[in-house]
Design goal:
The complex is a heterodimer of chains A (385) and B (387). In chain A, helix 4 crosses helix 14 and helix 6 crosses helix 11. The two termini of chain A are 17 Å apart. Chain A has a nine-stranded mixed β-sheet, sandwiched between helices. Chain A has a two-stranded antiparallel ribbon with strand order 5-6. Chain A contains 14 helices and eleven strands. Chain A has one domain: Peroxisomal Thiolase, Chain A, domain 1. With 387 residues, chain B is of the alpha/beta class. Chain B has a domain of 130 residues: 3-Layer(aba) Sandwich (Peroxisomal Thiolase, Chain A, domain 1), CATH 3.40.47. Helices cover 36% and strands 19% of the residues of chain B. Chain B contains 15 helices and eleven strands. In chain B, a hairpin with a 2-residue loop joins strand 5 and strand 6. Classes of the chains: A alpha/beta (385), B alpha/beta (387). Chains A and B meet through helix 3, strand 3, helix 4, strand 8 and helix 9 of A and helix 2, strand 3, helix 4, strand 8 and helix 10 of B. Strand 3 of chain A pairs antiparallel with strand 3 of chain B, so a sheet runs across the interface.
């Protein structure tokens, strides 16, 4: 298999309401990623886009619109989407471009501008449901994730306080991220006492609405070695999509992630992920999801995750730091860009360039994951130095 | 180049102006079932990965990717959606196999455009939100501008564009899956009501519903699954800017087609496409687009396509048949599914299964798809029955 490395990364600040257009956000992230690698736009072979869904930016065929900003003008460009999983999946998509041998370099650019939605981006989630059986009930994402959170807590006897611990872990890490849209230290009490949205989901259990973009430059081995002496290799990729009939699944365990993770670990030759992996960036749009996903990623035994969290196992200086970036809860959640931000974090952490966020012990192997659609899809990227 | 890849299964459903009896998911189920049957009865569990192509606004669903797996038999399998023409989706499937991680990948696409009450309104959402959309123009004005500029730059005539419509609608009479077949004259077309001068109502392809599923496999798997693998020799796609004011070389040229063709020819080792390729299925969403794309794809020089058409070169009996199926003008426009429909037609011809429209002795074909206004994205593929 052709070896592919990450050789550059960049992102915009994640903010509640960006003045920049989606195109300009893409430009900023793409330029930082290219400049950080030293590759010029003329030498770039292709661009892989990720945005999800079009309704946020309010633009049909959004991949086309982004082209001017992302550096794709007069190049092969292709947009991929798997809902919320898009940010990490776009890296998989970019890896396809280079590992296939069709291209030597590929710039992955993900962007989302959710502030265009009035009054709130949640409105667009009304149209993700089955138009006959579900949409008439007017469900939204908070509503169905509340069902999933409740089921997860019920299965293992977890409390809202247990879930809030994950929010505090990630939000504390995020305080050190220069692109974060937060500045306040949050406590478990703050989370529990925040406004109830849909039981058991309170406001601080949820990541915010954000605008932002992130980009990663991928290169085939010979190009990567020429551009940098610290390439971060894509060791494994995996993805899986479950049935659209979410109401008949057991929501307590993400079996799609189980499949995706095993696919990525098999490619990476990882047999004992919990022992071999040094840092994890599970997708955390809600606090419970970080824990749910640690189990799906085979990084924590089912039902023991809160115990490990309380023991400091997933802290920044623990055995397996969870979301050292701060994650979506700590940095912000411009959907697809948030997933790519997680891969950027692996890039910076594994190169030892994460400044105040740097986890101790020279991490060598990391995993990033994103999740989306109707609680249904996961994409996993394993990266190593 | 790494692994060789072939198309080993084809399935399709619909190709009708409306399909009130089937949901899009039922239509895809039918196409998928036929495709798996065609590929030696493969069980979907044995397929490694699935790629769908769609755009949310066309379907009235945010995150249309959610509804991909069930009807394809792809539950708990690697599945992704490409927000692009389905030929780009096919390119993604091809790349997945070439990485070595997958051996058998399905590509699916559909159009259920009959559900849309106002297609132009959706297209308007693809125009720039700051500069173009506030003009509140019917987006077909872009095609009118492009056509006008193309005629001006190349000396191609209005009548030659009309002749594309005559040819393709006539060809469609031989295609049982074509719904807009007709015997009409150049005068019928030039005399029809203008939509956006010089573009008339007959210069625009009509919409249809339909679904196509294709199965791709690596060489070893291909030989297991079928006796008639159709090899993918080359593929390319490219995007010019969607901004009308900054298109490379203005509105008269299809740079995206030139770049996509160049990449596909290079990969296939083709230097003289007109001589080395036997026939083509080329985007003809609008009449002028067929001629513009033929020139951009280097099948003739700039401004020569209209004359060659008049000489009959692109007729089924000509030197280089183009859109024997009837193309979008004769068979109907499937929007993001257009690419797979063109590949499907090319495969049928190369397998010798094209019925009364079968071309004699064809071995290598070209399919080219464009994403429609206001985009400047095109994808080209070279297919051959010979390895």
């Amino acid at each position: 298999m052709r070896k592919v490395a990450m050789v550059g990364a960049g992102m915009t600040k994640f903010v509640r309401r960006a003045l920049e257009t989606p195109k300009e956000l893409s430009y900023e992230a793409a330029k930082i990623a290219l400049d950080s690698s030293g590759l010029s736009l003329d030498d770039l072979d292709c661009v892989a886009h990720g945005t999800a869904p079009d309704a946020f930016d309010g633009i049909h065929q959004n991949g086309e619109y982004m082209v001017d900003g992302s550096g794709g003008w007069n190049k092969p460009t292709m947009r991929v989407y798997v809902g919320g999983g898009t940010g990490v999946h776009a890296i998989v998509h970019g890896w396809h471009h280079v590992a296939s041998g069709l291209f030597d370099t590929c710039l992955v650019v993900c962007e989302e501008k959710m502030s265009s939605a009035m009054p709130h981006a949640q409105g667009f989630f009304l149209t993700i449901f089955d138009s006959i059986t579900e949409r008439a009930l007017e469900p939204n994402l908070l509503w169905i994730f509340a069902l999933e959170m409740n089921r997860y807590m019920e299965r293992y006897g977890y409390t809202k306080e247990d879930m809030a611990l994950a929010a505090v872990n990630n939000k504390t890490n995020g305080l050190n991220h220069p692109a974060s849209q937060f500045s306040d230290q949050v406590t478990v009490d703050d989370v529990i006492n925040s406004e109830m949205l849909a039981y058991p989901v309170s406001r601080l259990d949820v990541s915010p609405v954000s605008d932002g973009a992130a980009a990663v430059l991928l290169a085939a081995e010979p190009v990567a070695r020429r551009l940098t002496d610290k390439p971060v290799w894509i060791e494994g990729v995996g993805w899986s999509l479950d049935t659209a009939y979410w109401a008949t699944r057991d929501l307590s365990y993400p079996r799609y992630l189980d499949q995706a993770a095993r696919m990525a670990y098999e490619m990476a030759g990882i047999r004992e992920p919990a022992k071999q992996i040094d840092i994890a960036e599970p997708y955390d749009p809600f606090d419970y999801k970080a824990l749910h996903h640690m189990e799906g990623l085979q990084l924590s035994p089912r039902g023991r995750t809160v115990e490990l969290l309380r023991d400091g196992h997933f802290a920044k200086d623990g055995n397996l730091p969870m979301c050292p970036s701060g994650g979506l809860l700590g940095v912000g959640n411009p959907i697809s860009a948030a997933g790519t931000m997680k891969v950027c974090e692996l890039f910076w952490q594994l190169r030892g360039e994460a400044d105040q966020r740097q986890v101790p012990g020279n991490p060598r192997l990391g995993v990033a994951q994103a999740w989306g659609d109707l609680m249904q899809v996961s994409s996993v990227v394993v990266a190593g130095i | 180049m790494s692994k060789r890849v072939a198309i080993v299964g084809i399935g399709y459903s619909g190709f009708r102006a409306t399909s009130g009896d089937l949901s899009y998911r039922e239509m895809i189920f039918e196409a998928a079932t036929k495709c798996y049957e065609d590929a030696g009865g493969i069980h979907p569990q044995s397929i490694d990965s699935f790629v769908a192509s769609s755009e949310d606004f066309m379907e009235g669903i945010s995150i249309a990717d959610e509804y991909v797996p069930d009807q394809l038999g792809a539950v708990l399998k690697p599945v992704q959606s490409i927000g692009g023409d389905s030929l780009q989706g096919l390119a993604s499937a091809l790349m997945q196999i070439k990485t070595g991680q997958q051996d058998v990948v399905a590509a699916s696409a559909f159009s259920k455009v009959s559900n849309l009450s106002n297609y132009e309104h959706v297209v308007a959402y693809a125009t720039d939100p700051a500069y173009i959309r506030p003009l509140h123009e019917n987006p077909y004005f872009i095609a009118g501008l492009e056509m006008n500029r193309y005629l001006y730059e190349t000396g191609t005539t209005r009548e030659q564009c009309a002749q594309v419509v005559v040819k393709n609608k006539y060809n469609a009479l031989n295609n049982p899956h074509a719904v807009y077949g007709a015997k009409i004259s150049i005068e019928d077309i030039t005399g029809a009501a203008p939509l956006s001068e010089p573009l008339g109502v007959f210069d625009v392809s009509g919409h249809i519903d339909g679904s196509i599923v294709l199965l791709l496999a690596s060489e070893d798997k291909a030989r297991e699954l079928t006796d008639q693998p159709i090899w993918i020799k080359g593929i390319g796609w490219a995007t010019d800017t969607p901004n009308l004011d900054s298109r490379t070389d203005g509105l008269g040229k299809a740079i995206y087609a030139a770049l996509a063709g160049q990449k596909a020819y290079q990969m296939a080792g083709i230097s003289a496409p007109f001589n080395e390729i036997d026939f083509a299925e080329i985007d003809d969403t609008f009449s002028y687009k067929e001629l513009q794309h033929i020139e951009a794809l280097k099948l003739c020089g700039p401004g020569e396509a209209g004359e060659l058409l008049a000489l009959g070169s692109f007729n089924p009996g000509g030197d280089f048949p183009v859109n024997v199926s009837g193309g979008s003008l004769g068979a109907g426009c499937l929007h993001e599914a257009n690419g797979l429909q063109r590949v499907l037609e090319t495969v049928l011809q190369l397998r010798g299964e094209a019925g009364t429209r079968q071309l004699a002795g064809v071995e290598t074909g070209l399919a080219f798809a464009w994403r429609g206004i206001p985009t400047a994205t095109g994808s080209a593929i070279i297919l051959s029955s010979r390895l």
